[in-house]
Every structure is written in structure tokens, then in C-alpha cells.
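Notes taken during the Thursday session

The instructor put the following on the board and asked us to keep it in front of us for the whole hour. The protein is Prostaglandin-H2 D-isomerase. We were told not to look anything up and to reason only from what is written here. First, the residues (185 in total):
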Amino acid sequence: MQATLLTILGLALLGTLHTQDSIPVQTDFQQDKLTGRWYSIGLASNSNWFKEKRHLMKMCTTIISITEEGNLEVTSTYPKGDQCVTRNSLYTKTEQPGRFSYTSPRWGSKHNIHVVDTNYKEYALVATQISKSTGSSTMVLLYSRTKELSPERLEMFTQFSREQGLTDDEILILPQTDKCMADAA
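Then, after some discussion, the predicted C-alpha cells were revealed:
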């Protein structure tokens, strides 16, 4: 009985590690070109908070800058009710360019972040594996330098999200808004 349980746990852990390793990272990633203002165009996730809040979500702005240590400071400003909320995150670089880690001080969750694909001047596709004591989840973000992207880029985001095991009801093209856009300059 114990051997069976250990085998199942081992396979589950191996599956989690395989999932993280199977997420690609941008070839020849150039961190300095990722800096600046981005708009969150698409969000996909199988987390409970996403399922609960998805109907409230709108496009937001994200500013990415590089710290002295070479990590990424990520500042997102988004509408929440009748106010603008700003969230700062520090993505710590790893040995692999284009891959970062982040631990949420609020929730204690560990984030394994991959810059999957970007041309730096138009779009960036970012995938995150999130682990916390209650389980793990996947999140995919589509960023754009402008408030709109071509249908081909939106389809690329949708297709990649599906490849990560997300269903159509877990994939959202964020509704545009002008609220909180100027505050994030």
C-alpha cells in the first residue's frame, strides 16, 4: 500500500516537473528589450481566483524595468471597482534567460515564469506555473505594446493556452477599458 502511494506521489511530482520543463522559453531572450509599458490583452488560468473573478477583469497596464541586480520589477495597474490598484512584483532571474521565479509575499505561492515568445515591439506571451500548499495552477498572459492585437496573435495565445491544458472557459481576451490606463505612466 505504501509503495503504491509513493509511486503515485512520485509520478505526480514527475508530472509537475515535466510540465515546468515542457514550457518553452524565447530563444536568444534579450531582457532589456522586454522593458517598458505593456497592456495585458489576454489572461488564461485554471486557478480558483480566476474562475471567481473572471467576469470582473479588464485590460490593465504593466511596466517592466530591470533592477540593479538584473531582476525584473513588474508593476501592474488595474481597475478594481471604482479605483485603480497597483501591484508590484519582483521576478528573480534564473540560470536560464527568459525564465524567472517569484514568491508571493501575500499568498506564499511560488511562481515559475517563462517568457515563451515575444518580438519585443508588438507582443509577449508569458506562461507561469504556480505552486502553493493547496495545489498548483497554470496562468498564461498575453501582453501587447498597444491596446489591440491582430486576430492571429490572439489565436496564438488561445492555442498556446489550450496546449497548456486550459479549456476555452479558462481563456479570456480582456475587455478594453480606459480606466487606470493613464495612472500607470
